[in-house]
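Section 3.1: Structural characterization of target chains.
Under the original work plan, the team committed to producing a structural model for every single-chain target entering the pipeline before any wet-lab resources were allocated. The record below documents one such target. The sequence was received from the expression subgroup and is listed exactly as submitted; it comprises 224 residues.
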Amino acid sequence: MTTESAATLQPATVAAWCWLGTAAAYLVAETIAASAFPGYSYLTNFISDLGIPYPTDSGGRPIESPLAAVMNGGFVVQALLFASAAIAIGRALPVRGIAYAVFLAAALADATGLVLIAIFHSGAREVENGLILWHMIGAGLSILGGNLVVMSSGFALRPLGLPRFYRPAGIALGLFGLASISWLMVGPKIIPDGLVERASVYTITVWELITATLLLRRARRVRD
């Protein structure tokens, strides 16, 4: 093990486990909250429906999420772990340039958005009092920031020597995520809204799992 490899091993491993934790926090919180939501559909309901902490109606959809606190708590845990991972991976980079600055700024935007989503909901009360604006800002920061992280990761993490497929895969995933949220906003309603929204979010989750796996495999090779 070289001195440089040893110095980057721990922060890269911390980042990997944080990204795994981020993906797990989202998937577990979503599954638990959805299981308690009568008639919840992954195709037609939005993710944020799970976080509305009172019975209401949102966009014509009846909302009743008894475990909204679980979903909102999951958003906050995601935010903390995602930001921590982006900061930790910076310590593993021998060179941090513009690409990492973009990567870090996008990650912090994503984390800020997740916290806003957890605090400001998308139910009838928020529509009436105007706080829905903060929910929309949060969703925008999270989805746009997260997919920008995915797209920029191949450039920002290049010094770590990840496989050649990593950069084009990140660009493709991020573009798909951005195309999905664009479709949700202005595209024809021929695909269920919940499915389209999830396509813009699951790209980030898939990237987290891929990146964490590659970093942990790299750490094992360095130790050997």
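Strands lie at 56-58, 61-63.
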